[in-house]
Amino acid sequence: MRDLAVIVPAYNEAVLLPGALAALAAQTDRDFTLVVVDNASTDDTAALAAAFPGDVEVIPEPAPGAGTAADTGFRHAIAGGATRLLRTDADCLPALDWVSTGRALLDTADLICGRSVPRHDEHPGLIERRLYPAAVRLAARFGRLQHRGPEYRCPFVLVHGHNLAITAALYDQCGGTPREALGDGSEDVTLLNRARRHSDRIIRAENLVVESSLRRLRAWGSRRTLLWSWDRRYRPAPDAVHVR
């Protein structure tokens, strides 16, 4: 295990995982171990991940949930000696400098929450490119009002579970990502708030960029997707949570 590990939870992602792997293989900084957590997939996710042309470890996590799978990956990397941890998702395309940017930012911060933009290969329209991200930022402002209190050492910032970097020390100290089903809570917000109780070195970094899939937005529409992102105020049927 290298000092920097990239964690990718994956459930039945044989269609989009190759894009994420290609983006990671093309990083300007290749000095990392890729940890793909196979979350009980029934397709070729694990085999595709194992073929990554670099330092890769594919580990299983049978219990469902992106938070659960991410926590398994983080803790596996920490146990292996990694001190810097980045996370993205199997349906995302990290920018070519994503690893190098995350590494540099972790020199001065303990948790970095990066920027998410629509995947270019899904050909986003005007609303998807401009208005929806603006609505997400507006929801984050409400988040700052909701998630505040004397127990927090720094302000709330907009966080995406598919684009963050954190030190192993803070991850261990704060308790990490909650091990819960995808529909039970926003695991990224919970991790952020846990971390805010222990560190004031938490930032939003607009230069840490990944392209994320629009498939949930297109399946559910803007209103439901925003409510889902806002602490699961929209809850689909259990078999509709994992949009593919």
Task: Summarize the structure in words.
The structure is a single chain. The chain is α/β, with parallel strands linked by helices. It has 9 helices and 8 strands. An 8-stranded mixed sheet has the order 3-2-1-4-7-6-8-5, sandwiched between helices. Strand 2 (33-38), helix 2 and strand 3 form a beta-alpha-beta unit. The longest helix is centred in the middle third of the chain and has 21 residues, at 126-146. The protein is globular and about 40 Å long. The two termini are 31 Å apart.
In short:
By secondary structure, the chain is of the alpha/beta class.
- Please mark out the parts with pLDDT under 50 across 5 or more consecutive residues, or reply none: none
Can you give the mean pLDDT?
90
Euclidean distance between termini CA atoms: 31 Å
Q: What general form does the structure show?
A: globular
Structural class: alpha/beta
Major sheet: size, sense and barrel closure?
Answer: 8 strands, mixed
The total count of helices amounts to 9
Strand content: 15-25%
Strand order of the largest sheet: 3-2-1-4-7-6-8-5
Q: Measured on Cα atoms, how large is the radius of gyration?
A: 17 Å
How many strands appear in the DSSP assignment?
A: 8
Order of helices and strands: EHEHEHEEHEHEHHEHH
Q: Percent range for helical residues?
A: 25-40%
